[in-house]
Write a structure and sequence with these properties.
Length: 507
């Protein structure tokens, strides 16, 4: 069980929760602050002074005063009316991460919800009750309203949820888990659906996957460099220290270490008629290093956002004020998602060029055409390379910025929106595409290195080859390749490639 202190949770912790389903709950030390804010909200709800979202309507209806006896109905109606999401449900692991992020936000003691609301989320997580949250419907403006409303609907016994892999009405899912629907008090519905937790959860998982792709690309690019008998001179440390970018220096150092001891490399240090390799070999540190630095910038933003209070209005206990602001606007998440998308697209773009290099006998330094021992009768990796080109192109389109695509909503009250949900959602597709590009590159590079026998690659790259060949044999005669491409892609996604080559790159 991970005990989380709101405002101080790291990305490593959040990744563990997401990847491994590690149970998590708030530290009891957060309770006093939460209850103090809830007391202020209860007092405001009973008063005559209109306070937005507590005893008023919402958005354009903020000037409508709500009677104290109607505040519970107000919150329930808010959830039901805002449950307008459509599309495929969000993956359960992402939904659970979203719930954890909502705990962290509410636990800061500025949202005005009762501790009972936090306990409901914690018990749903602990007992495996996962709301069914449609993936479309948020513009990332007044928070991720529709997705978070669907999360909250399950908490109050509405909507749908899954338990033990079965999709059920929300009330039935709670009953099976031994839980009761919660009745929302003043501001609690608003506190639950205002916020960036849907967008942030999707952006975080996109970040975690992209970092795994970057790690794998360092190992696979090293294997490709050996396959085409490329030079390691562009990896010399002084080149990269003269430029000074941390990511570039780290990628070069990692590749130097991975390739150390390669007989293939030593065999052509002298007498090689090629003066320089193509950019896709020579500039891997500059390209993937830049992507790594961009991913780390996005990581810093998302770690702050994961610990932030992003609903509205906010309860400032020490100042004795309930203040309306705009922390729900997901611009930071939108920018971070766009950065991640650019990095993913570029890692794939340079990897695809290495695939193209290896299948082309005019560029691959005497490797057989399309990496098949009997070209003509066999096509080898010809169309696997075409597949990588298709996915690279798709990722280029998907990498276009989302955060600049604002559109007014809610009768022009919410007249500038972040589109962070769009930006974050597309990262899963982009990372899936990239894992295929890298998987195909790994298959081609392995075939190329084996063509250099009896010369051997480095010990770390041999570990990678052994892992790969344990499941996918070398390509002789043409065979049905689609399942093998999926297997190689899965190896990339699962971190097996980086692990086999001993690549360790931190967030």
């Amino acid at each position: 069980m991970i005990e989380m202190i709101p405002g101080a949770v790291t990305l490593d912790t959040l990744e563990r929760i997401w990847r491994h389903g590690t149970p998590a709950r708030l530290a009891d030390s957060a309770r006093a602050g939460v209850e103090a804010a809830a007391a202020m909200v209860a007092e405001a709800a009973a008063g005559e002074v209109p306070v937005y979202g507590i005893n008023t309507g919402f958005g354009k209806l903020a000037s409508t005063k709500i009677a104290p006896e109607d505040t519970a109905t107000l919150q329930r109606n808010l959830i039901l009316s805002h449950s307008c999401g459509v599309g495929e449900p969000l993956a359960e692991d992402k939904t659970r991460l979203m719930m954890v992020l909502k705990l962290l936000s509410l636990g800061r003691g500025a949202s005005g919800v009762r501790w009972a609301v936090i306990e409901q989320i914690q018990e749903m997580l602990a007992r495996g009750v996962t709301p069914v949250v449609p993936s479309q419907g948020s513009v990332g403006a007044s928070g991720d309203l529709a997705p978070l409303a669907h999360m909250t609907a399950a908490m109050i016994g509405e909507g749908e949820a899954t338990i033990d892999g079965v999709r059920l009405p929300g009330a039935e899912a709670l009953r099976r888990a031994g839980l009761e629907p919660i009745v929302l008090g003043p501001k609690e519905g608003l506190g639950l659906i205002n916020g960036t937790q849907f967008s942030t959860a999707c952006a975080l998982t996109g970040l975690f996957e992209a970092l795994e792709m970057a790690r794998a690309s360092m190992a696979i690019a090293s294997l490709t460099t050996d396959a085409i008998m490329g030079s390691t001179a562009p990896l010399v440390a002084d080149i990269h220290s003269l430029r000074g970018h941390a990511g570039q220096m780290e990628v070069a150092a990692t590749m130097r270490d991975i390739m150390a001891g390669s007989e293939i490399r030593e065999s052509h240090r002298e007498g090689d008629t090629r003066v320089q390799d193509p950019y896709c070999i020579r500039c891997q540190p500059q390209v993937v290093g830049a992507a790594l630095d961009v991913l780390r910038m996005a990581a810093r933003t998302l770690e702050i956002e994961a610990n932030a209070v992003t609903d509205n209005p906010l309860v400032l206990v020490e100042a004795g004020q309930i203040v309306s602001g705009g922390n729900f606007h997901a611009e930071y998440v939108g920018f971070a998602a766009d950065q991640i998308a650019l990095a993913v697209a570029e890692i794939g773009a340079i990897a695809q060029r290495r695939v193209a290099l290896m299948v082309d006998p005019t560029l691959s330094h005497d490797l057989p055409p399309f990496l098949t021992p009997n070209p003509g009768l066999n096509s080898g990796f010809m169309i696997a390379e075409v597949t990588t080109a298709a996915l690279m192109s798709e990722n280029k389109h998907l990498a276009n910025p989302c955060v600049t695509d604002s559109t007014p909503t809610s009768a022009n009250q919410e007249d500038h929106v972040s589109m962070a949900a769009h930006g974050a959602l597309r990262l899963a597709k982009m990372n899936a595409n990239l894992s295929v590009i890298l998987g195909v590159e790994m298959l081609c590079a392995a075939q190329g290195v084996e063509a250099r026998a009896p010369l051997k690659t480095s010990s770390r790259l041999q570990n990678l080859l052994d892992m790969l060949r344990g499941e996918i044999p070398s390509l002789g005669e043409d065979r049905y390749l689609a399942p093998e491409i999926e297997t190689a892609s899965a190896m990339v996604r699962a971190g097996r490639v980086a692990q086999a080559a001993g690549v360790e790159v931190s967030t």
